[in-house]
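In this supplementary section we document a worked example of the pipeline. Step one takes a protein sequence of length 120 as its only input; no multiple sequence alignment statistics are reported here. Step two produces a three-dimensional model, which step three serialises into structure tokens for compact storage. The input and output of this example are shown verbatim.
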Amino acid sequence: MPTGPSPVANAPGAAPMMTPQPPDGQTANAKVDVLMGIKMLERGIPAFGSTSKEGRALMKAVLALTKEFGADEEKSEELMPAEIRQLLQGLAGPGQPPTPPAGGPPGAGAGPPPPMQQPG
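The serialised model returned by step three reads:
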């Protein structure tokens, strides 16, 4: 007597195993952190002076980090939240010109405010 199809033969197959994906988001976040660290180190150089032992160590660290991560600086700055950019601009010190926020000044392009109505 013939038997029907085996239940195992009609069972759905398992999905193929997925290959691990590189952690691009974590890497981009780490690059932003490194960029912030470079900015903070740069801020310390004038306080110690470029000729002191500490100042030279800071400059050496900034140079090494910039050589490795400097190519990604613009891309990393784009990923930074606006609040962190403002904080870093404040850390830049009085000698550095502030850069305008990405969206422009508040109310830009809105035109003059509407005239106030006189009570009548």
